[in-house]
Amino acid sequence: MLIIAVFVSGMTTLAIELTASRLLGNVFGTSNLVWANVIGLMLLYLTVGYFVGGWLADRFPTRIAFFRIIAWGAFFGGLVPFVARPVLSGAAGAVIGFQAGAALGSFVAVLCLFALPITLLGCVSPFAIRLAVSDPASAGKISGRMYAISTLGSLLGTFLPTLWLIPEAGTTRTFVIFAGVALSVALIGLIRQGKAGRRAAVWLIWQPLVLIALTLTAPGGALRPPPEGRSLLWEKDSAYNYIQVTELKTGLGRIIDGQWVELWKPGTRELYLNEGQGVHSVYHPDGGFYGGTWDMFLAAPFVNTPPFRPDQVKSLAVIGLAAGTISTQYTAVFGADVNIDGIEIDPDIVEAGRRYFGMNQPNLKVIIEDGRLGLRLTTGMYDVVAIDAYRVPYVPWHLTTVEFFREVRERLSPQGMAVINVGRTANARTGLQDRRLVEAMTHTMQQVFPTVHTLDVPDSFNTILIGTLNPTTPANLAANLALLPPDADPLLRRALEAASRAFVPSTASTVLFTDDRAPVETIINSMLIDYLLQ
Fold it and tell me: Alpha-carbon distance 254 to 263, whole Å?
């Protein structure tokens, strides 16, 4: 029973840690700042647990005390999602409303909920070693065995929730399942300790009953409600993201050239991921111009030297397909003869695209893979390689380097170009923009492409960078807009008009991203902290 208890405690500890990141990720995201805080505090709690466990083992060296510690650690671990839910629900509004103080306070409060369960489970290994050692000559062997067994359990606790339980059972039930397993081991262990142990087990039998009752009666619904004016169509905890699909109840628009223009009609669907900052895909059955980053991807090929015609666009690769807005617009504008390879790492996002975003074009081939590896698995040459996998603070560093852009260049046709969506921030008081990531990306792309254009998407924190194989100028786009045939798709015309107004001077910093050194996280973390402090 000691061996089983140590194994299960190690498994439960890691499972709680990984599931904690998903619980917090629904509201605060899963950036490396969030991960660093989760891992750091869990290690701090374990450190305290090791000290406390050793002290308790010397003072109360009984198996009854040992299994009681496991029972209480498991019970508090199972309580976490139920106690955290009202805190996180309040924090969700603070995050969406950029209320940094309230969001930070909620984040710290939820992390503190893990102090008791992780500290108690940290007591298990030193306590078990104290109980198992009867001969000092075998202390080293027994200690090594116990820590090996605990680590073996941790391996199972790493893979089981991430790859299976969270996607299938959800975050709350994953907490309860692991707590239930540990509780069962504790109660069985107590029952095996004779009359006193059975009496202790009876006193603790209410713990699993409470967890079962909470699981059955806990309020359902989304942990993070959809943004105002939207209804929730679908949500899921995937192996990679917390996914929400929403639908607009009323239209959205903005003033363009002095006139109010409705851009998103009622019934428009949006894809939100993790903490819900930013729309990752948008779709309306009637199609149309969305006035966002996706339209800029449509306009990018027309930076080529004029005359450049719509029928010259033959192929597209999308790294960061999401729910398929870019591929859907390309098919609508350039026709079903355009060959499109879409690379997306999360199969559940692809499912959302097919169910709710009309992502069923016959000319679209979906590749479920990481972006860089997925590009290597393709065999075609592309007129456009669109990279829409950056979303501050989620920027995969391996998609930002000189070596990566060399791989992209090798897959471009003679008229091809790389188009990237990059993030920036702005100071709400001064209006000054923080363009460090944009400028570092510009410098990196300039090592590979003769020309890099910069387009700031209106009313957003998005900047589009276009790297061309041949020297080009912004005037090319205006010239190609003037040369569009009268029967050109209205969506294309509006996209080119919007892009022609979005050009800003390209500015490069001295920062260079390479496979050996890419300080992407350093820049992003600094941008985020500066933004939150404002």
Answer: 7
